[in-house]
Amino acid sequence: VSRCLTSPKAASSLPQELQDAGFQLAEEERPQLGEGSFARVSLVVRKDKYYALKTVTKVPLEIRDMAQHMKREVSLHSRLCSHPSIVTLHDSFEDTRRIYMLLEWCPFGSLSETLATLAHSDVKSALPLSITACAAAIVVDQLASAAGYLHENGVIHRDIKPDNILISSLTPTDVELRLTDFGWSCLANDAAEIYSKCSTPGFAAPEVFAGRQQTTASDIWSIGAVLRSICGAPETYRRFDPRLADLDQRLTRVDPRARPRAEEI
């Protein structure tokens, strides 16, 4: 059972706005959910409901000329988080030193953590291929739904990968996912951004690293790469589920124009 950190030192690590609203840091085995070079994500609680608090330090952002980049992330996320497969952004605010994002907490961590756990255990090798393929199909279906919503609203995510796919609910027969992290997202008609090299090697479409124009089809490639991270190369499961193997190859076609739209997946 989680408890709250009520010491003055713990309280002072939260912004005053959250303290005034009754939020406290949660005392967990993992109170800090993640940390990067200029951001950290902590678990906070208010009235027995848990949230993920993303705190971004402004000084490194200003040094790297990324302050506007961060504000764009907040702006895009805030207007696109009503979709059931996108992490909810409950609130955002800033003070002189930091930017804060109060996000939906997904208790089962990221898809990458789940895949890493399976890879270092005997569980995955013991799973029937039918279960792996079924789970992969559920993941792809929810990602396609989230990506389709972004694309309908003129936004390209540009960094769909297991690290940015959180697991909100997990049962023996189903999983609910949330797409997160809009740090690289941009408007599809933003000429200053759609040629910039971004995304993550292994999950970025060929046109990204070739310096060609990125489109909504670039997200489709990334969904195909996520599928492969779950199932492996299509040759490994073609006999069992040829439709899933064929989908893999359609999603990762080199020509962006030949890939299906999100609503066609």
UniProtKB/TrEMBL annotation:
Residues involved in ATP binding: 54, 181
PROSITE patterns, sorted: PROTEIN_KINASE_ATP (PS00107), PROTEIN_KINASE_DOM (PS50011), PROTEIN_KINASE_ST (PS00108)
Active site: 159 (proton acceptor)
Molecular function terms, GO-annotated: ATP binding; protein serine/threonine kinase activity
Species whose genome carries this gene: Perkinsus olseni (Perkinsus atlanticus)
UniProt similarity note: Belongs to the protein kinase superfamily.
Covalent cross-link site, Glycyl lysine isopeptide (Lys-Gly) (interchain with G-Cter in SUMO2): 161
Sequence intervals crossing the membrane: none
Top-level taxon in the UniProt lineage: Eukaryota
Protein name: Protein kinase domain-containing protein
UniProt keyword terms in alphabetical order: ATP-binding, Kinase, Nucleotide-binding, Serine/threonine-protein kinase, Transferase
Ranges where the Protein kinase domain occurs: 27-265
UniProt key word Cell membrane: no
